[in-house]
Amino acid sequence: MSHLLDTSGLPDELIPYSGKLSPRFYEVREKVIKFIQEDIIPAQAIYKQQQAQLLKTVDHPTKCPEPPIVNELRAVAKSRGLFNFFLPEVGRISVLEYSPIAELLGMFGLANVAMNCAAPDTGNMEVLAKYGTPEQKEKWLTPLLAGDIRSAFAMTEPGVASSDATNISTKFEYDAATDEYVVNGHKWYISGAIRPECKVFITLGKTRFDGPVHTQQSMLIVPRDAPGACGAQHGHVLIVRWREWDWGAEGSRLCLTVLFHSRLCLCVTTLHCEPVQGRLYLFDSL
Asked: What residues contact residue 135 under an 8 Å CB cut-off, 6+ apart?
């Protein structure tokens, strides 16, 4: 591990790629290593102490809030420009260059969170950045990129092999009378769903159950505090007759409106997706 924190040269495994690494990468890598050595490593003991005290205030570990030291480290990371490197257009390094940075963050989980590069937020932010409307980006992507809130990806369900998206049984049913989508389903083992900082779910379900199986799935942005969303312990989330209400410019009820809908969309987007070779690929539905 120590050789990965050496800024005097590249680790042996990176030498074959040296021709593809920009000056920006070397600058970022040095700053990240310095941040880890000067701030993260000394803060690890403080994190454990604060977490131990906070655990006494909740009835289950999944409900434990983030220790205050995390926000202090986020502020340091922001001040040094060490934030959101998983998005090339934000971090200004390529995916290839991010890989060895991510390796460092994998060894120091506190750095991963402090630099806002932790899952599931990273994947959710990538989806919002690519497919979100301006309103959705302002409401959810901006605070996620700032590290002000956390998110969860609601895919796994009981009773089905959820690693295969074609098996998902949660139903997204459009109600034309109210211009809403009604979500019916049961999600569990959703990482981070119960943590106090989690404010929004990207939820996987189906808008229909007929036709080609690889064209039935969609995703909806669902606020965690949506009426009808019932939380349980152990990171589980139970979604029962989920209806989310919001108010547009004229006070009209807007709920779970699809991305390609002509009306103002504040809280929810639908993103069609296609599982290919065991992975989930998103494609633009417009």
From this structure: 264, 265, 266
